[in-house]
Each structure stands twice: as C-alpha cells, then as structure tokens.
Amino acid sequence: MRSERVCALARYVMTSSMSPVITAATQWFERTLDDSANKRITIPESFLAIDSILIILENVVRGLVVYPKMIEKRIQMELPFMMTENLMMEAVKRGGDRQELHEKIRTYSVEAGRVIKLEGGENGLLDMIANDLEFPLNKEQLLSLAEPGNYTGRATEQVSAYLMEVIEPLLQPFEGESFQETELRV
Asked: The domain 68-151 belongs to what CATH superfamily?
C-alpha cells in the first residue's frame, strides 16, 4: 500500500513537470501570468510530493525484512533456466550436437515451466536433462555449473563500486549524526 502511494506521488511529480514544458512550448517567456503562476504551484508542490515520497520510502525501508532462505529458494527455482546456455556450451564441448542439444533443452525447459506454472511443482529441468542418457552431462556435472554467482555478470563489482564511489561520499558529511524517524502522515 505504501509503495503504491510512492508510485502515485511519483506520477504526480512527473506530470507536474509537464506544466512548465507546455507553457514553454506555447509562449516565449515574456513574464506573463501563465508562466509564473504555474511555476509557483508546480515547483513547491513537486518538492512537497518528493518529500512525502522520501518519508514513505524511509518508512518502508525501516520495516523491510529480508528472508535469505526465500531468496535462495527463488534463485534455485529460476537458476536452471538461466544456465541453459552454459549447459549447452559445456555439452557441446563434450561432443554433443548443438542443434540436438538446443532442442532437448528447449523441450525440457517448456515442460519444467509447465510443471512450475500449472502444477505448482519444483523446477525439474536439471533432473530431466540428467536422466537423458543421450545428453553428455550427468547430474554431478550439471550441479557443478549451478553456481548462482556465475550468472550475475559484473553486478557485484558494480554495486560495490557504486556504494564506495557515490553513496559513501554522500553519506560522509552525516557520519555520527542521528536521525529521528519521521512520522508517516501520507
């Protein structure tokens, strides 16, 4: 509910920015009332709306609960689909025919997706592939490729760099200060 409020207020701010743009498109900034009147409304109202957004987000973040086991479960549910390209490349290295492997992986992926979506079952893609005697990878080899960190690219490094280069310098002036939680009134 609070996140929906944030979205609603953000839409308000985005559309408020259109008023001065429309004014600029229809007059030549001759200091007419239609220029200054809408600026007197849209600019402060936008700042008030953004302030409300930040208060709501602070409230949401303070109450945020992370469930690592649920995250892990969700990753494990999706990981077999994310790793199909790597599975195919490894299987080709071991002598498999790329076209045949692609079709097998596609067929098994569709079936695994069907079981998940229609039956609420677990992702059995790796088991299906492991049980295919013509597929050149066994269960142990498949599981060795199932390391989630292999499928995130540079995300870890990018986040770390952003935190150190952008966020930490912004927070530095406030180090040691305590902040009082704002009452949510929106």
From this structure: Fumarase/aspartase (C-terminal domain) (1.10.40.30)
